[in-house]
Amino acid sequence: MKPFLPFLLSFLSFASCSLPKKQNTAEVYDFEQIKAKGEITAVTLNTSTTYFIYKMQQMGYEYDLVEDLATSLGLELNIRIAENITRLEEMLDAGEVDIVAYPVQMDNTMKTRYLFCGVEQQNHLVIVQRSNRGDTIINDVTGLIGKEIWVKQNSRYHERLMRLNDELGGGIIIRNIGRDTVTVEDMIGMVAAGEIRYTVSDNNVARLNSTYYQNININLSISFPQRASWIVRKDCPELAAKINEWANGISQSPALLATAKRYFEQSKNDFVTDGQQLIIKKGDISPYDDLFRKYAEGTDWDWRLLASIAFEESKFHNHLESWAGAKGLMGIMPSTARSLGVSPDSLENAEISIQAGIKCLSNFNAFFSSIKDRDEKIKFTLAAYNAGNGHILDAQKLASKYGKNPSVWDNNVAEFIRLKSEPEYYNDPVCKHGYLRGIETYKYVGEVLARYKFYKTIKK
User: Fold this and answer.
1) pLDDT (tens digit, 9 = 90+) per residue, 262-272?
2) Is the CB of residue 443 less than 8 Å from the CB of residue 450?
3) Sequence-separated contacts (24+) of 153-156 with Cβ below 8 Å
C-alpha cells in the first residue's frame, strides 16, 4: 500500500492543476438588466427640496426629476428613503438601489468611487436678511462686521461663520440659538418677522423659503459654489449614459424650468387663478354660503368651519390650482379626488368640491377616533386635512416619546409637527412619513380656527 500513496498524491496534484480555475464572473447589472426588470430603484433623502409627502402626495424637486427620468426610460419608479447621506452611499454600494437621486457634492475622492450623472446643480451658503422698505441690504461680506447673525450652535452654518469671521479679522457677532426646537426654516421665518436680522442657510433652502416670505433677501453668498449631481455605481456606465442623455434633453426644456419654478420661484401664498373676481354680498362670508349650509346639514361640520377651510385653501376662488396641484374651493389634491371617486377636473364645480372636502374631513375625523374631546379632535382633523394623517401620527408618536400628550394639540403634538422639518426628528425611528414643513400645518390649524371663531360672531 505504501508505493500507491505517492502515486495517488501525484495524481491528485496533477488533476488539480489540470482543472480549469473558477472564473470571477460577477453578474453585470447595468441599464440592460434594469430595462429587462422594468423598474428603476432610486434613493433620496427627506428634505424640503428633495422629497416629502404633502396631502398624501409624493413631492419634491429631486423626486419630480427622477420620476420624469423613469417615465422617459419607460420604467416604473421605486423610491427609497435613506436616513442620511452615508446611508445613500451604503445602499448604492450594496446594490439595494440603482441611483442616488440626491445632489451629491463632487470631489476627486467621490469621482474615484462613483459616476456622477444627471442634472448638475450648484449650492452654497447665503445670508438671509430682511428686505422691507427702509431696510439696509448688505451686499458684501465686510458689511457683516458688527452685525448679529443667528445660527444653531455646532451646525455647519456656525462653522462657516466662524471661519468667515477669522478671514475678516473678527467683528461678526455670532449668536447661537440654544433651543433644539428651533429649525433653520423657523429662523428664516424669524428674519421675515423682524425677530432677528440675519441667519445663514443653504441657497436651495433659502430659495424655497423665499417663496413663502416675500420680504427676505438671499443674494449674499458666504461660501464658494459646490457642484453636485446624482450618482450611480462605477460598473453602471450604460445607466449613467442614459441618465446624462435624459438630462441633456431636458436641460433647457419647459418641463425642467416649470419644475424648478414650482419649488423655488412660485409663491406658496398666491394661487394660480383665472382672474375671476369674487362678488360677495354684504353680510355674507362668501359667495358660497348657501352651498356650505346645504352640504353641512346633517353632518358634524359647522358650515362656517367649512367656509373658513375654503378661505384658507383658495380664498374662495373655485377655479384655482395651488403650487402643489390642489384644486377647487376646498383645495383637494387630484389623487385624493380620484380616491373619493371624483374627477379632478370636476373640482372646479363648487358643489362637488365642498362635498369632496366634507368626505375628506369625515375620513380624517374617523382616523382620530381615539381622541374623545371634540375640540381637540377638530384640531387634529384640520392638521391632517392640511398635511395628511401620516405626518400627524408621526407627531403623536414623537409627543409620546418625549413625554407629551399625544391626544392634545396645543403645546403638545403641535410642537412636534413644527419639528418635523428637522432631520433629528423626522429621521427618528418612530416616524414613518419623513420631512414636513410643519410650521405651515401649525399655522394652518390656528388660522382656520381663528377665522371660524370670527365667522361665528358675524353669521349664524
Assistant:
1) 999 988 875 54
2) no
3) 153/177, 153/178
Looking at residues 193-203, what average pLDDT do you find?
95
Is the pLDDT reported for residue 412 higher than 70?
yes
Contact 296, 302 (CB under 8 A): yes
User: What is the C-alpha separation between 83 and 251, in angstroms, rounded?
Assistant: 29
**Is 378 within 8 Å of 361 (Cβ atoms)?**
no
* CA 67/CA 76 separation, integer angstroms: 9
Q: For residue 248, give the amino acid letter.
A: N
Q: Please tell me the distance from the alpha carbon of residue 196 to that of residue 188, in angstroms, as a whole number.
A: 9
**Closest CA relative to residue 386, chosen from 321, 332, 327:** 332
Cell of residue 176, nine digits = 447661537
Q: Is 142 exposed, middle or buried (0-12, 13-18, 19+ CB in 10 A)?
A: exposed
Query: β-strand 216-221 against 125-130: which pairing, if any?
Result: antiparallel
Residue type, 344: P
Residue 434 CA, chain-centre distance (Å), reads 8
pTM for this model (two decimals): 0.78
In this prediction, residue 275 has a pLDDT band, given cuts at 50, 70 and 90, of: very low
SS3 103: strand
The rounded Cα 29 to chain-centroid distance in angstroms is 31
How far is the first Cα of the chain from the last one, in angstroms, to the nearest whole number? 112
* Burial class of 426 by CB neighbour count within 10 A (0 to 12, 13 to 18, 19+): buried
Q: For 30-113, where are the E strands, in sequence order?
A: 39-45, 52-54, 57-59, 76-82, 99-105
**DSSP structure class, residue 98:** S
> What one-character DSSP code corresponds to residue 46?
-
Beta partners for residue 337, in sequence order: none
Taking Cα atoms as reference points, which of 433, 403, 405, 407 lies closest to residue 421? Answer: 433
Per-residue pLDDT at 191: 96
As beta bridge partners, residue 79 has 42
Residue in 62, 185, 312, 313 annotated catalytic: 313
CA pair distance 80, 60, nearest whole angstrom? 14
DSSP 247-279: HHHHTT-HHHHHHHHHHHTS-TTS-B---PPP-
Distance CA 356, CA 358 (A): 5
- The rounded percent of the chain whose pLDDT value lies above 90 is 77
Tell me the three state secondary structure of residue 161.
helix
Rounded to whole angstroms, the Cα distance separating 165 from 126 reads 15
- Is the predicted pLDDT of residue 18 greater than 60, yes or no? no
Q: What is the DSSP string of 366-429?
A: HHTTT---HHHHHHHHHHHHHH-HHHHHHHHHHHHHTT--TT-IIIIIHHHHHGGGSHHHHTST
Distance CA 330, CA 307 (A): 9
CA 243 to CA 77: how far, in whole Å?
14
Length of the chain: 460
Annotated active-site residue 167? The verdict is: no
